[in-house]
Amino acid sequence: MKLINNNKTLIALALTTLVSACQSTEKVEVTTAEPIKAVEKVIEEKVVHPPVDEILSQVRNCNDSIIIRSQLLSNQQLDKACALMIEQESYFHELFNTRGKPVKDDGNVALRANVYDSKTDYTKYATQHFDMPTNNGGMYLEGFPSKEGNQAEFVAYEEQSKSSGEWYIRNLKHEYVHYLNGRFNAYGDYCKYLHDDHAGPEYCPKPSPILPHSVWWGEGVGEYVARKNVNDWANKEVTKEFGKYQLSDLFNTSANQNGGGIRIYAWGYYAVRYMMEDQRDAVEEMLVLMREGDNLGYQALVHKWGTSLDADFTKWLKTTLANEKSVEPAESGH
Ligand SMILES: [Zn+2]
Known about the structure:
This protein is an alpha/beta fold. It folds into 3 domains: 2-48; 49-185, 3-Layer(aba) Sandwich (Glutaredoxin); 187-334, Neutral Protease, domain 2 (Orthogonal Bundle), CATH 1.10.390. The protein has 14 helices and 6 strands. A hairpin with a 2-residue loop joins β1 (58-63) and β2. It is globular and about 55 Å long. The protein starts with a helix and ends in an 11-residue tail after the last helix. The structure holds zinc ion (ZN). The site of zinc ion (ZN) has 4 residues, from α7 and α8.
């Protein structure tokens, strides 16, 4: 704490110095806002926080494949989070008929969930602890599944439900599905998947692979397995934008190009749900390729589908949006 306070003082001092320096020059109007921000950012990056083991000092082993490392979760919250992930694990295996068999070269036998006490703490520590951006609601870090000693992690935080006041782990189910999908449905590490994200900690090389990518599936399946057939937020957003995308457009969704939260998570949810409900044979054909890491084969398959499913998807979507009943607990976030 002392260190952090000192650094806060440093920032304040640096800002004061800069402001007074600006005030003493004639170019003050041109040079105020931006340079101050820049100096503040540089100094913030130099703050050295206590290591992750000190901040996330509580460790709970839910079972052989799930570990939770947390800052301030109560025993009751830990019980609940363990139960939820264990239930999700068996649901996933049943849904995809994995028979518990991972893809080849995958040594990610266990997932470690890292849970900060609040969004503020997540933003403060996660970049330094995990070399990752925090302008998001949590992240799954698969690491290098073929490397010995690799630890798959997801990084999340507690948030308070606006309706019940209860604290819960934001995106717990969604992030956990990334682990399951990565271990049982998709070969290789994050940079082997088809997307255009170049952020840390993976820093996947540029240029990105050509379209189609597989972000619609990766994020959509996270939402679909987590929420099953009730997703109020996606229903509301997709109803507003009904007709904006064909299914064939959604196969070209990515992290940056053709991205955005609504397209990725809400439309992605319905794209995956449609494929799972109405085109299950096509999904199985796709999963064979994904499990092998055959990106070219996957892209050829998506090209073969072309626009042939578009009309049926739109028809299905219209009915599904109209018939969905809202029974979703308010705390599930997205
Ligand atoms: Zn995700």
